[in-house]
Amino acid sequence: MKQSLLLIYIITLSACSSVGQGLAELTGLSFLHDRRDSAAITLDEKIEDSAIIELHGLDEIKDKSHFNITSYNGKLLLTGEAETEDIREIIIANVRIISGVKLVHNEILVGPLSTLQSRSEDFLLTIKAKDAIAEIKDKPGFDATRVKVVSENKTVFLMGLVHEEEGDAAAKAAQKVSGVKKVVTVFEYIDYANENN
User: Fold this and answer.
1) What is the mean pLDDT of each run of 10 residues along the chain (197 residues)?
2) Longest dimension (CA), the chain
3) What is the pTM (predicted TM-score) of this model?
């Protein structure tokens, strides 16, 4: 019963997330503001799908790991938990060879798997961090939909193609969110001279 109420609470709260960013992501319109070209966006989706299919097919890690896979411009972020170092290494080895992966950021912790409650709290942190980043108004041209937010074990990971000052502002905004223990930036920094959008 408590889990059902928690899930309803999360869904209700997520509906209150920043309307502009939320609608853009839900309708798929965030690609209009994305600094990646359509080929890179498609490749990232393919990388994530391939990684999920590959890893879910491995019996040796089933029920012994919990992981999230996020690809942004060919850079793959792995977050979650593995019960042993060997299981973590199996996960890394299998995603590293996926076509299109340029770099793997391994943030999988070795230890007990996170609980449903912990994952729900991380989900809420992601929403709050996105809201905080969407409130950045002092960076001309900054678009919060260009920042990908992933939360795991109260750590917020930020990805995207951003200018350094945009990344710094997003990290500071996320760090101020109640409940965030740490912010890890996995940005790819661009300069104004090479920006297409």
Assistant:
1) 52 43 48 88 98 96 96 98 98 97 98 97 98 95 95 98 97 98 97 67
2) 55
3) 0.83
Residues 61 and 168: their CA atoms lie apart, in Å, by 36
Please check whether the domain covering 37-113 is classified as CATH 3.30.1340.30. yes
Please count the CA atoms within 13 angstroms of the CA of 194 that sit on its side-chain side: 8
Which of 146, 122, 61 lies closest to 95, judged by CA?
61
Out of 3.30.300, 1.10.10, 3.30.1490, 3.30.1050, the CATH code matching 1-33+116-197 is 3.30.300
CA atoms within 13 A on the CB side of 124: 17
Within a 13 Å sphere around the CA of 148, how many CA atoms are in the beta-carbon half? 21
Q: Which residue in 170, 165, 168, 171 sits closest to 183, CA to CA?
A: 171
Using one digit for the tens of pLDDT, what is the confidence trace for 72-124?
999 999 999 999 999 999 999 999 999 999 999 999 999 999 999 999 999 99
Which residue(s) pair with 161 in the sheet?
Answer: 188
